Amino acid sequence: MKKLLMAAIAGLFCQLASAVEVAGVKFDDMTRVGNGELRVNGAGLRKKVFFQVYAMALYLPQKSSDAEAVLTASGGKRIAITLLRDLTAQQFVEALQEGVANNHSEGEMAGLKERLQQLSDLMLAIGEAKNGTRIVIDWLPASGTRLTVNGQTQGKDIAGEDFYRALLKIWLGNKPVQDDLKQALLGKAS
Predict the structure, then answer these.
(1) Do 54 and 84 touch, CB atoms closer than 8 A?
(2) How much is the CA Rg of the chain, to the nearest whole Å?
């Protein structure tokens, strides 16, 4: 009986420690942002025509399948992206800007413009993003939005939770960049 219990506990531990995999990219089930533990909410693949562009995962303090609840939830958050093809920084920046613009009015965009430019400048300074580049965009409630590329923090944190929420809307807004990716990030896809 004791051996059976130990085997069950070991099996449960292996399941908890496993990673989520998308297009060959592994994302940890858990991560730490600031002082908080986050769990993967969902992960998916961004495709354009028939090209795989990137694999990504969304991390939250608590899992949620409701986009509005995710957007308004308090606490740290993480968007983890691994590129599956070479892109210029300009291509990546244009896609981010378009995704934000598609989910906000002109008035809302005016309030985001300076901070979106700050993020764009950080990305453009990198120059290019090769296949395998890891981009992490964290929300740290104490300091703001932090961009990390291949483990290196880029520039200063960008203030305002509304800005991080605007970035999340690229994938979770009313006009997401890709509907099935939105569903995957919300944990609704297989």
Answers:
(1) yes
(2) 17
Regarding pTM above 0.90, the answer is no
Task: Give rounded-to-5 percent helix, strand, coil for the chain.
Answer: 40, 35, 25
Q: Quickly count helices (H) and strands (E) in the chain.
A: 6, 11
Give the amino acid at 185.
L
Structure tokens at 118: 């700050």
3-state secondary structure of 32: strand
Contact indicator for 172, 71 with CB cutoff of 8 Å: yes
- pLDDT tens string 126-173: 888 889 999 999 999 999 999 999 999 999 999 999 999 999 999 999
Asked if 41 and 28 touch (Cβ cutoff 8 Å), the reply is no
CA pair distance 122, 124, nearest whole angstrom: 6
Token output for 99: 């995704």
Q: Does domain 19-185 have CATH number 3.20.20.70?
A: no
